[in-house]
Amino acid sequence: MSTPILIALAVLVxxxxxxxxxxxxxxxxxxxxLLKLALALAATTIAWIVLPRLAGMADFEVLKSxxxxxxxFIGSLWWIVFAVFAFIVLERxxxxxxxxxxxxxxKLLIDVVRxxxxxxxxxxxxxxxxxxxxxGLLAASGVFAVVMGFALQSTLAxxxxxxxxxxxxxxxxxxWIEIDGATVGQVVxxxxxxxxxxxPQGNSIVMPNSKMAxxxxxxxxxxxxxxxxxxxxxxxxxxxxxxxxxxxxxxxxKATAVLRDPPPSVRVTGFEYTQVSYELxxxxxxxxxxxxxxxxxxxxxxxxxxxxxxxxxxxxxxDAATTSRAGRLxxxxxxxxxxxxxxxxxxxxxxxxxxxRPGDVIMREGELTSSVYIVELGAVEVSMNMGxxxxxxxxxxxTGDFFGEMSLLTGExxxxxxxxxxxxxIWELDRESIEPILRSEPAIADRLSRVMxxxxxxxxxxxxxxxAQERQDAEQSWPDDMLGKIRRLFSLPH
Length: 494
Hints:
The chain has 494 residues and is of the alpha+beta class. It is built from 17 helices and 16 strands. The protein has helices spanning 3-21, 29-57, 61-100, 107-130, 134-140, 142-151, 153-168, 209-214, 241-252, 290-308, 317-320, 326-332, 341-349, 405-410, 431-440, 444-463, 468-490; strands at 176-179, 183-190, 194-198, 204-208, 217-219, 226-236, 265-271, 275-285, 352-356, 361-363, 371-377, 380-385, 391-397, 402-403, 417-420, 424-430. Strands 4-3-2-1-5 form a five-stranded antiparallel beta sheet. Strand 7 and strand 8 (275-285) form a beta hairpin. Helix 1 (3-21) packs antiparallel against helix 2. The radius of gyration is 38 Å and the shape is elongated.
C-alpha cells in the first residue's frame, strides 16, 4: 500500500480519536460505542497493513520471526471488530429505522442477515489465520457444503420456506390462522425453523416452516379482522320461517361482541318431518373471542325461544308463534314472576305495545318519565354518561329483558339512555296503569322492592367495585329504602 494511503488512514484514526474524546456525556451510548469500534477498526487496519512493512525494514530477528503470527492475530481481530461494528450499525440504523417508520421487520430476516455477517466473519478469521483468500476457502469447502446440504436437508427446507413465508406475508405475528382445516391458533413467533402458535386452549403449537409453506392456510385477520361465524339449530316445523328468522336475527344482536353492520342473517338449511334446520350467521370484530361470542349468541337465542315459547322443548310452539305474548313476558320477567296468574294477567291486560325502528330512543338519561318496558323482540342498547369520558355502551338487552322499573315505582330520573338497535317490539306499563293494581294489592310492593334492590345492586357492581361491608349494607338497607319510596309515591298504607 502506498505511503499517502497510510498517512490518510493515520489521519483518520487521529481525527476519530480526537472526536471521540470530545464527546459530551449526553451522547447516545450506541453512538459512543460505534465511534470506539470505528477507531479500533481503523487502528487494526493500519496495524495489519503496516506490520509486514516494518518487519521487512527492521533489523531485529525477533520482530521478523514473530511478524507473521502477529499479523495473523491482527487480521483475525480486524474481522471480529468489523463483524461487531456491522451488527451495531444494522441494529441502530437499519432495523430501528424500519421500526420508527412502522414497518415490522420479520425476525427471520434479522436472523438470516446476522448469520450471513457471522459466516463472513468466520471465513475472514480462517483466511487471516491460514493466509488463504476467502474465494479459495469457498472453493475448497464445496464438497463439505454438498455433504452438509444432504445432512441438513429438512433444516434447510424449513429455512428457505421461512424466508418465502416472510417475503409473501400470508400471516403475521398476532394473526389467527387455520392450518389444513384442522389446527387453529394465534401466531406468536416466526423464526428460521418454525412458526409457533398458541391454541384457543392456551397450548403451544410448533409447526415447521416447510409444512406451513405446503399447507392450506386460512387467515382470519385478512383482509380485515372482521370474521363471520355461525351456529346451527332446529325448530319445530310449525314455527313459520319468517317468525324464526325475526327472532333469531334479533336475538343474536343481544351479544355485545356481535356487529350490527353487517347485520346477523338466517337461512333455512334443511327440512325434516317435524323440524326445520336453520343457520344463524353473525359478524364479530376479531377471532380471539369466537368461543365466548358463540356461547353468548347461543345463550341469547335459547332465552328468546324459551320466553316466546318457540323452542322445540316448549308446549305448542306453533300456537305461540301466532298469539299475543304479553302474558308470557309478564310471567317470565323477575319483576312479576312471583305474582299469581290472575295478577299477572291483569298486568298484561293494561300493557301497551310499541314498535320501534333502528335508532329510536326509548328513554334518555336524566328524564323524568314513568314507564317500565319489556322487550318482546329485538335488541336495545344501554349507554351511560361517564363524565369526561362521554357516553359509553354498558349493555345490550333482548327478548325477556325489562328496564325502567326505578322511574316507574320510585319516581327517580332515568339512569341510562336506551336506543333500539334494530326493528324492536316492546311492551310498556305506565304509572297510571299500575297504580290501581298497587292500591288494590298493596302487599305486592314488598316483593317489588326486593327485586328492584337486587337489580340495583347487580348494576352497581358492574360499574364499580364494592367492599364486602358495602355490599352487606346494601343488601340489608336498600329493600326497605325502595319500599318506602314506593309507598310514598303511590300513597300506600304501611
